[in-house]
Specification:
With 444 residues, this protein is an alpha/beta fold. It is built from 20 helices and 15 strands.
Length: 444
Amino acid sequence: MKSNKRWLKWICLGLACGMALSGCSGNGDDSTDSQGGSGNLPVIRFATNYMAGTEQFHSDFSEMVEAYAASVKDKYTVEFESESGDNLRDKIKTDLAADNLPDCFHYWTAGSVKDMVDNNLLLDIDEYFAVSKNLSRDNYPESSLGVYTFDGKTYGFPIEGSSNYMLYNKEIFDEKGLTPPTNMDELLEVSKALSADGIVPLAVGSSAGNPAHFWYAAVFYQYYTQEESNTICGEQDKWLGEDNIVKTGNLIEQMRDAGTFPADTLGSGDFAPAVSMYNEEKAAMIYAFPWVIQQFTDEIVEKSEFMDVPVMPDAKYSTSDFVVGGTNFGFVVNAKSFHDESKQAALVDFVDYLLGDEVNQLVAESGRWAVKIQEYDESKLNPLYVRAQEYLDGREERVHLWSNMPAAASQEVFSYAMDELWAGSATVDQINQDIQDSINSDLS
């Protein structure tokens, strides 16, 4: 019963949003009010996390889209609603509860949008392609569209793919007379040696599940195929009782107890603190992602080499053969806004620009895995991005477990379960019960 109480606490916000959604048929006035601009021009509300942050990408993107908005100011007005990182998710939840969804916005994939799709809030992109003169379904790999597809219809434009990679500081390992660990025993030995010298072995903490849930998936997928993961996450009563899911949790506990992770798992969680720890050479290894590539210093990149995730005991699948990743971020359009004839032309013009070649080139230059099919200027790509692509080339892609959760509530429970696992504040059995309860609830 204790675990159920924790689970209920975690999803209360999700349930509140769900209650708001159940009464939200897209009839609110705020998100589709075409008035308010200069001379009653159409107003396009655009929400994004690409404009708030410390990366060069954030300032470059802001400059680019603000310049475009200025160039069309005589035709329509763009209102920018900028949030950093995962704060965008909280902003959209608040907007949903107020029946005030933006006209278009960047957002995550799969279960993240399911509630909005179920409530007819998002546009089927085939409707968009029928109007746009610049974009078509052929601009996207069909496999990338699957993460936004429900019951045969697609409700989002994929922008970013993600293939996670692992780096180690060669200088630190050489100075300590260590070699990069290739299996669990070696990882525990290296962890004890490095932590004894005050060096964090692996810069993976957990704040709202980041970046811990990615590392958890890297262990999980050594025992499960993508198809098995789809079943475990997509059907009721499949997660609980899986021996290798229990093993995955137990292995994480062993790493934690050996000092593999930062001592303050919550305070060191999220992406920027992990990169900062690695840049400052306070950590010897990092499990990293395309969207942090610009954050690594040139000095640390020169000292870094790629490595495979260590192989776990009795693993069925080698980490040299697969990579955790998949299309995990994109762009959606408010269905009611699109069907508002007074603003459709303006909305299509702005979205065409946001999804056009110039912006996607910038996405690729930032180190993010740009999904759109187009010609990219490879001479402008980040060198670490190129190295990562080459290192991971040919590996089977397996979707982040967080993305594979059936809806937003179970995604949230899974994220906070990682916080508890990393901190040791709940047992593996409690955590697995919470995750199972949330999956069952989302699928009921």
